[in-house]
Amino acid sequence: MVSVLCTLALLPGTARADNPIVQHIYTADPAPLVHDGRVYLYTGHDEDGSTWFTMKEWRVWSSADMVNWTDHGSPMSVATFSWASKDAWAGQAVQRNGKFYWYVPVVNRATGRMAIGVGVSDSPTGPFRDAIGRPLVENGEIDPTVFIDDNGQAYLYWGNPNLWYVRLNADMTSFSGSPTQVPLTTAGFGARTGDAARPTLYEEGPWVFKRNGLYYNVFAAKCCSEFIAYSTAPSPTGPWTYRGTVMPTQGNSFTNHAGLVDFKGGSYFFYHNGALPGGGGFTRSVAVERFAYNPDGSIPTITMSTG
Ligand code: FUB
């Protein structure tokens, strides 16, 4: 659990130190990025607790100590993408060559289907502009995660109900060839029962990273009381081996969404739940737990400190 050293008043420009991290608006789909001594936390914004997601913008928060968080407002929204109509869903930002690239799923007005756009900025806090003026990927699926390997090759993964990846070009805003579909085997992603269309646990929200030479894919499993599970592989393209549960179903939200970073000697697991008053599946809140990898690199079971 994150130690709470202080609790800030709910002043503009601040967020509270304890879980949930943000307590004055609803936030979802956390995507942390470590840069220059700070953790930048990119989130969605749940604006209405009715019967479906109402998400029009993304938000940025940052912290140097994982206790005090600064609110950087909303430097990117659906309106940033002239071709987009709605649904500012789960994305991830990465830094390369002095620029920050933020990959997000959003509905393409022309097709009515989800596409992946990419925003770019000179600063981790924006403002972000549409990097290419059109979708980067169009196949109706969601939840991009971006990973740059040690040799400089960048990968974009995404998908629900499938899992896809492309190798991004060095410009981070284009790719060569066609998207590759990852084989969703039960050995790779666990076995689901009772849904012939989805034989594995993989649902959505992949988060791919490398640690001590091992590639991890931490993902949301088995809608619609999602838990967080993970797979590992010897390469960024697999083959993946299912490794089990990271965070069990908990927390008054039918989705969950993971983001992991190492920061100043600690490992941190970000997620969301419905822990705030009025919280639920469409009024979520991002939270974080500090944890330690097991000596063999496996991830321990992490439970929510609130929710
Ligand atoms: O926030 C909208 C969607 O819910 C995300 O894209 C999924 O990962 C789930 O959290």
Automatic annotation (TrEMBL):
Top-level taxon of the source organism: Bacteria
Range of residues in the leader sequence: 1-17
The keyword Hydrolase belongs to this UniProt entry's keyword annotation: yes
An example molecular function term from Gene Ontology annotations: hydrolase activity
Keyword terms, alphabetized: Carbohydrate metabolism, Glycosidase, Hydrolase, Polysaccharide degradation, Signal, Xylan degradation
Family: Belongs to the glycosyl hydrolase 43 family.
Descriptive protein name: Glycoside hydrolase family 43 protein
Biological source species: Saccharothrix xinjiangensis
Residues of the full protein shown: 1 to 307 of 442
